């Protein structure tokens, strides 16, 4: 194949955009925790980036995109990037470039999962959890959807990671929160965010990076990429406004609600970005804002300490987005039709892919977290939690 320099340049740029999302998650989460855990929370995102970068190069890419084994996982043909070359591959861009593009998806997914253990996880335990989780949860899910696994064979559509990234991370965060338990004093004492402007900055980085996340998934500089760019921004805006107005109805239109709604819209449009148009993106984004806001209120009523809301925003937003893709996919955009256009099978395929990812991620995460908690322990001691993770885990102050 002849190298397509335009596609190659766009994927390079998109990779850099997506890479920015992992620290973006760190800043988003860091602003939401208490001051004594501010630095440690941001640092977890950087730890996730470094760990998963090595795991992906050594074994993760091969497990996700190696030749299929039973529809579940890839083999080890690409172990240590063996055979992953710099010359043009079947997609007219270097396979090595596709590898690094997929790597940054894996890193941001692990960063999102940290929501479930905010302000109470041991760094050493997190490192072990992250390596195991990425290998036996994320890598198989990426193979199912994008590497030739059973979900793609069944016809499930996931343009840029609704199931692979968002359902998996959101429901993993919920499982982790259940196993690790509530923060000391949760529900009894006020736990004020350390720095709301930092969360707004994190949102800006995420919104910016998401253009590479979704548009880059076209793997070409073409009309599909342009459409994905437009619907990404449109859904984010719709989600932001929907959450803001819903929260305004119940009180004040907080800035945190505005940016949480934007993330909800971005999450929901991710699996659909290559298959729907701008007007549909308004519907998907607005409904996501309402669904995720409702999920957050339910979480609060239930007293669940998954307080950075990866489950409410990424888990539930990703689930809605995957189902919405099966409903609204329009043949005029990319040749795929959904339930609205009479294709019931597409909706069934997307629902199957979404709920399989949900059950697999939640169930396996419970097992991993329980095993680590019962052996070396997931959470810090009560004294370390009281002092704060900035000091107890890093010996630093923000």
Strand content: under 5%
Shape: globular
Q: Which percent bin holds the helix content?
A: 55-70%
CATH superfamily: Ammonium transporter AmtB like domains
Overall average pLDDT: 97
Number of helices: 16
**How many beta-strand segments?**
2
By CATH, the architecture is named Orthogonal Bundle
Order of helices and strands: HHHEEHHHHHHHHHHHHH
Q: Mind summarizing the main beta sheet? A: 2 strands, antiparallel
Q: What is the end-to-end distance?
A: 51 Å
- According to CATH, the fold-level topology is Ammonium transporter fold
Q: Return the structural class.
A: mainly alpha
Low-confidence stretches: none
Biggest sheet strand order reads 1-2
The CATH class name reads: Mainly Alpha
Q: How many domains comprise the coordinates?
A: 1
Rg: 20 Å
Q: How is this structure best described in words?
A:
It is a single chain. The chain has 398 residues and is mostly helical. The protein has one domain (5-394): Ammonium transporter AmtB like domains (Ammonium transporter fold, Orthogonal Bundle), CATH 1.10.3430.10. The chain has helices spanning 5-19, 21-30, 38-65, 95-113, 123-146, 150-154, 162-180, 196-215, 223-250, 255-269, 278-302, 310-328, 331-334, 344-375, 382-387, 389-394, and strands at residues 68-69, 73-74. A hairpin with a 3-residue loop joins strand 1 and strand 2 (73-74). Helix 7 runs parallel beside helix 14 and helix 10 (255-269) crosses helix 11 (278-302). The longest helix has 32 residues, at 344-375. The relative contact order is 0.15.
């Amino acid at each position: 194949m002849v190298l397509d320099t335009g596609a190659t340049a766009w994927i390079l740029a998109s990779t850099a955009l997506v890479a920015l999302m992992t620290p973006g998650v760190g800043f988003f989460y860091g602003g939401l925790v208490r001051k004594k855990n501010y630095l440690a929370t941001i640092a977890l995102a950087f730890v996730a980036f470094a760990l998963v970068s090595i795991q992906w190069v050594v074994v993760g890419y091969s497990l996700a995109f190696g030749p299929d084994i039973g529809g579940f996982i890839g083999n080890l043909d690409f172990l240590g990037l063996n055979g992953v070359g710099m010359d043009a591959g079947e997609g007219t861009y270097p396979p090595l470039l596709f590898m690094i593009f997929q790597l940054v998806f894996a890193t941001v997914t692990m960063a999102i999962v940290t929501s479930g253990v905010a302000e109470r996880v041991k760094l050493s335990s997190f490192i072990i959890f992250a390596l195991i989780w990425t290998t036996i949860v994320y890598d198989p899910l990426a193979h199912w959807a994008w590497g030739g696994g059973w979900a793609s064979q069944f016809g499930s559509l996931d343009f840029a990671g609704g199931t692979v990234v968002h359902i998996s991370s959101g429901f993993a965060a919920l499982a982790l929160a259940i196993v690790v338990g509530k923060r000391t004093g949760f529900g009894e004492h006020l736990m004020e965010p350390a720095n709301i402007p930092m969360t707004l900055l994190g949102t800006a980085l995420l919104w910016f990076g998401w253009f590479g996340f979704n548009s880059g998934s076209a793997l070409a500089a073409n009309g599909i990429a342009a459409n994905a760019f437009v619907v990404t921004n449109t859904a984010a805006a719709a989600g932001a406004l929907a959450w803001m107005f819903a929260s305004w109805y119940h009180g004040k239109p907080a800035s945190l609600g505005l940016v949480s709604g934007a993330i909800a819209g971005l999450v929901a449009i991710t699996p659909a970005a290559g298959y729907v148009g701008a007007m549909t993106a308004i519907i998907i984004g607005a409904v996501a804002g309402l669904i995720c806001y409702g999920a957050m209120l339910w979480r609060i009523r239930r007293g669940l300490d998954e307080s950075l809301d990866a489950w409410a925003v990424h888990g539930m937003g990703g689930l809605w987005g995957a189902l919405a893709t099966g409903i609204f996919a329009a043949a005029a955009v990319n040749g795929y039709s959904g339930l609205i256009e009479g294709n019931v099978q597409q909706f069934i395929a997307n629902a199957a892919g979404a709920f399989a990812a949900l059950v697999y991620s939640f169930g396996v995460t419970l097992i991993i977290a329980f095993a680590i908690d019962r052996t070396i322990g997931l959470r810090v001691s009560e004294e370390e939690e009281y002092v704060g993770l900035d000091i107890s885990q890093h010996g630093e102050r923000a």
